[in-house]
Amino acid sequence: MNMLEILRDPNTQWILLGTLLLGLSSGVIGSFAYLRKQSLLGDTLAHAALPGICIVFMLTGVKSISFFLFGAAIAGMIAVFVINVVTKYSRIKQDTALGLVLSAFFGLGIVLLTQIQQSSYGNQSGLDKFLFGQTASMVMSDVYVMMAVSLILILACTLFFKEFKLLSFDPGFAKGIGLPVLLLDYIIMLLIVGAVVIGIQAVGVVLMAALLITPAVSARYWTERLSVMVVLSGIFGMLSGVVGTLLSAAVNNLPTGPLIVLSATVWFMFSLLFAPNRGVVAKLWRRVEAKRKYELIKKLEKQGAHHYE
Amino acid sequence: MNDFWIILVGALVACSCSVVGCFLVIRKIAMVGDAISHSVLPGIVLAFLWSGSRESILILMGAALLGLVTVFLIQLFQNSGVQGDAAIGVVFTSLFTIGVLLVSLYTQQIDFDLDHVLYGEIAYTPWHTMTIAGMDMGPRAVWIVGGSFFINIVLVFVFFKQFKICSFDAALAAAMGIPVMFFHYLLMSLVSVTTVAAFDSVGAILVVGMLIIPAATAYSLTDQLHRMIIISMVMGILSSVVGYYVATALDASISGCMVCVAALFFTLAFLFSPSHGLISRIWRRKVSFKSI
């Protein structure tokens, strides 16, 4: 199959639109998460979604994506709340709190999953698809949900850009000039929950973290300005989504989620090596240049000294 | 007898994870444990493809090697200016992705259950026995996890002072002439070996849970490192015993129940710890208000 044929397939078009939006929105919100040192929050929230999905399935007994997303969102919000309470009211630091919530929620999810598998809930196959994601199972209504969530996400990031910027770089100052820091904090976390929830279906629990982290880290290499970084990170995410989906459509037997993450990683490697100022090549070049200059000066000095004698 | 073996494996995993987990919690790098337990996947798959069997020691070595590669890459990116948590995230997700892609590429050639590797079931450990010279030596997992526990306890005991100073004040340690980077990598190799040894028999979720949760519980109960390690080991053993019986009562996943019980213990410590608990904090605040 050539690329044109793939692109003409309406099913692929929907999936392509879905992964594109997912990459864009997680890239955008991921850059704020990166600057606020909350990159791994996405990982925790993705894992924490599992018990939410299981409980919703146990309550309703239907395998409906929108119900599952609702459950995942509720579980994600509870997880955010627990992380905040634990870091605020005990000596536990954020990273430990993240790991704690991740493993505790996921353990609970596994317990519920085994309960579901052993009891007569009927057709439960497909619940475990959430662990690794299944892009191919996305249908039009899922893409509509993704469109709505990513639209809200990007709109919120544009509207609150100044506030988020201040909060990311100097939360103390933000509080000092009277911004509702706690509320904004929860809004950012809620947006991350949103990105995670729409991402779980496409790329799965484990790899969702990559979509939040990798584009943002790659974008950071290219610029020192937040606005440029957010846009670049969104573009990197978008490109990863598109390239991953097309590759998986062109090559049989390869799952889409991992390919999306792999292309994000390739972008990261590219940025790591070739970014203008912070890249490895640029750094090496600067070092070589400095050495050459130094040697030239030394040589000239020597010649000069010789000349004066 | 099977009950005994399962609880023993659970307790050994808990102890061996606690020893290194306490250092991870103190050094604020708890998520490294989570990262390593994911990024060893390509190592396991490659070693499996190479050797063709699941039982081989090669798998353990491949996984341990990938664990070290993970730590090395995280350090490399951190040194080049990427934030610590983001460096962890980038490294483990990309390695895990490579692992998943390898599994799907060779899915015809290998009988490899991804779910089993990640959520490995501790309930099957009594049947994977080891025989040496025709003698039944008991479950393989007991020996592997027990071995990693032994290595951990010996090294931490011998270098306790060094590990302690490096964890609390790396600058002081460097000034005293302790090779800080060496001990960092030594600790990380211990984390990696522990994770891999336990991972094979009980799955990633129990390993991550036991690395972090009992250590966090102990951290809210005491201010002394050696006490913290002991308390966290006790908490881990208690969680695996109680978790096992809860799991048999509910007929649910044993690893999942053990982690849940450990989380329950943490909640209790978070609320009722005499020194750092929520209630004692509120109480102290009230008392100090009154005195004013």
UniProtKB/TrEMBL annotation, chain B:
GO cellular-component term (any): ATP-binding cassette (ABC) transporter complex
Listed transmembrane segments: 6-25, 32-50, 56-74, 86-106, 141-160, 172-196, 202-221, 228-247, 253-272
Primary location recorded for the protein, binned into one broad class: membrane
CDD domains cross-referenced by the UniProt entry: TM_ABC_iron-siderophores_like (cd06550)
Family matches, as Gene3D superfamilies: ABC transporter involved in vitamin B12 uptake, BtuC (1.10.3470.10)
Bilayer disposition of the protein: Multi-pass membrane protein
GO biological process terms, semicolon-separated: response to zinc ion; transmembrane transport
Compartmental location: Cell membrane
InterPro entries with a match to the protein in the record: ABC_BtuC-like (IPR037294), ABC_TroCD (IPR001626)
Domain of life of the organism encoding this protein: Bacteria
Record's keyword terms, sorted: Cell membrane, Membrane, Transmembrane, Transmembrane helix, Transport
Similarity remark: Belongs to the ABC-3 integral membrane protein family.
Protein name in UniProt: Metal ABC transporter permease
Organism: Peribacillus asahii
